[in-house]
Amino acid sequence: MLRKEKMFKLNFKKVFAFLFAFILCFGCIDVYADDGGYTIDDYKVNAIYHSNNTIDVKEVIDVNFSSYRHGIYRNIPETMYINRDEKYKLKIQDINVLNDEYEVDSDSGNRVIQIGSADYTIIGPHTYTLTYTIVIPEDYHSDLDFIYYSVLGNNWDTTISHLSFDIQFEKALTENEMSNIEVFSGSLGNQSNDLNVTPIITSTSISGSANDIGAKQAITLFGKLRQGYFVGAKQTTSKIPFIFLGLAILFGLYSLIRAFLLKKTHITPIVNFYPPKDMDPAMVGTIVDESVDQEDLMALIPYWASKGYLTISEKEDDLVLTKQENHEPPILKHQKKIYNGLFKTKNSVKLSKLSSKFGKAMDDAKEALNDEFSEDKKLSTIDHGFGTTILAMICMIVCILFNTRYSIVDNLIETILATFSFVLMMVLNYSAAATNVFNKNKLGVLKKILSIAFILILSYFVYRQCDSILSIVPFEFMMIGIVVVSIPIFLISKFNVVSNYFKSVAPELLGFKDFVEKAEVPQLERLSLENPSYYYDVIPYAMVFGLSEMWTKKFSTIPLAQPDWYDSYYSDTYSSYFYYRMLTRSMYEPIHENLLDYQTEQMKSTADSMGSSFGGFSGGGAGGGGGGSW
C-alpha cells in the first residue's frame, strides 16, 4: 500500500492528548525491541559461484512494513576478512533492482543500495528483488583455494521468519571438498551453527534454510578447495613494487659507480701568516663552508674597526659604533648593505637601539654575498650522481608503499619510517664540498653508526611487512634494494664537487686557517712585535674559522696595546680576553637579538598572509552485510 507524502500542521491539543495516553500506557505494557518498522517474512538467496571466483547473486526479500516507510536499504561489504592479517578487496558490480526505484552509493566500506522513493511511503507487505555480482580477487595461498560466502549478513536490524539459499557451482566439487564445507551461523564471529542450518551439499550445489532468525544474525559458508579450482580470478599481485624496486636498484648502482669514479679533492695548504688582502672575513667565512652565516657578517664590524672605518666604544651594558668621516665607505655590495644599515641616518649607533631595518640590511647583505660567489666564482657544483641517489631513494620508498595486495594505507608506517630514515641519513652524511676541505668532520664515525642504526630499524619494519601474507616482494629482494640505495647516501658528499675557483683560493686560506689553529706563542710574539695590531687584524678571520677563542687564548700572555679605535669599559686593565668578551657578548648578543626579532616579524607576516589566502566465522566472507528500512 503506497501513500503520497503530505506536509501538514499538527494540532497541539491532539499531540498533548497522545503523549498523556502514551505515558499512562507505558507502565502497563511490555517493552519490545524496535524492529525498525518492518520485519522480513521470507528471504531467498540464489547464487551462481563461477570458476573465476565471481558470484552472481539474486535476492528476493518479502518485507512486511508495520509503519510507513520509504523502502529498505541493503549494505554489501566491499572487504572480505579471513583473519586479522588476511583481507581482500571485493568489487560489487552489475547491481539491479526489479520494479523499484533505487540508488547506489558507497559508505564506510559498504556498497549501499537504497531501494524506494523519497516521494512515497509504503506499509504492509512488499517484495524486493535485487541482483548483483561479487568479484573476489585471487587468494594469497599457493597450496589451496577456498569458498567463503555469507548468504546472510549480520547487519539486518530486524527478524527474519524464514530464509532459504541455493548456491550453484559452475565447477564441480570433489568428495573431499564437499566434506570440507562448513556452515557458521549466529552472531558475528561465531564458529558454530547456532541457527541449526542443515545444508544439502552436492558436487554442484549447496542449499539450506533457517527459521526464526533474530536481528544481527548471520549465515556463512566456508570450505577449503583444491589449488587451481578458481581460474582467471582478479589478480591481486601488482607489478608496481617490483618495477620501483628495480628502478631503485638501477639508480642506486649508477650512483654508487659514479661516487667511486669521482676523484677526491686534495688541497695542499700554503703556509700563510696574514689574512688575504682581497677578501674580507665575510667572504672567507662563506668560502670555508659554502654558507653565509650570521657570524660571517658580524665579523665585518671588528674588521672595519681595524681598517679605520669606525670606532667602538664599550659602555656598561651597551656598545656604541661611530662612523669615521675621514674614510670612504666600503665599496663591496655586501659591505655597503650592512654599513648603511648601521649609519644611514646617523653617524653613531647604539647596538641596543638597532632598528628592525638592520635585520633587513643583514638579509640583503647575505643575498649580495651569495651573488658574489656565482657563475665564474661558484664554489662547487652538484654532480648528477646526487640526483640519481635521490631518485633511488624515492623509488625505494614507493616500493615499500605499494608492497601490498590490499591497500597502501596498511604500509603508511613503514613508508613514513623509510622516508624519515633515508632523509635523516642524507642529512647526517651530507656536507658542503668546502666543509670537507676546511672542517674535517670529527663526528663522522658517530654519524655513520647512527645511519647504520636507522638502516637496521628500517629493515626490521620491512621484515615485518614482508612477513605478512599481504606482502608482494620477498624480504630478501627488499633488503637488496635498501642496501644498494643506502650506500650512495653514505657517500652523498662526494657528489658535491669543488670548482676551479675554489681550488685557486683554498690553498692560501687553508694554510692561514691551519696557522691560526696551530701557531705557537713565540711565533705570535714575533709577529706582534712586527705589527702591534696583528691580533686585531686576524681575529675577524678567526671568528669565521670558529677559532676566535683559541686565537685569544694564545695571546693571553702576550702584552697587547689597546687600539685607538676601541674604548674599553675596563680601563684599569686590558688584555685580549676583554676584547674577545666584547665581541662575543657586547657585540654579538644585541645583534643576534635584533636578527631574531626581525625573523620573528617576517615569519608572523608570512603566516598572516598565508592565513588569509585463516579460518571462517559467521558474518565473514564475501556478501553478507545487512540492511534496514528508511
If you had to describe this structure to a student in words, what would you say it looks like?
- The structure is a single chain.
- This protein is of the alpha+beta class.
- It has 18 helices and 25 strands.
- It starts with a strand and ends with a strand.
- The N terminus is likely disordered.
Helix content: 40-55%
Overall number of structural domains: 3
CATH architecture of the largest domain: Sandwich
CATH T-level topology of the largest domain: Immunoglobulin-like
| Sheet with most strands | 8 strands, mixed
Taking the alpha carbons of the first and last residues, their distance comes to: 16 Å
Radius of gyration: 40 Å
- Round the mean pLDDT to the nearest integer and report it: 85
- Strand percentage lies at 15-25%
Number of strand elements: 25
Derived from helix and strand composition plus strand pairing, the structural class reads alpha+beta
Weakly predicted, low-confidence segments: 1-34
**Total helical segments:** 18
| The first-level CATH class name of the largest domain | Mainly Beta
Shape annotation: elongated
Transmembrane segments: 240-261, 386-406, 412-433, 445-463, 469-492
Protein name: DUF2207 domain-containing protein
Domain Predicted membrane protein YciQ-like C-terminal: 275-555
Keywords: Membrane, Signal, Transmembrane, Transmembrane helix
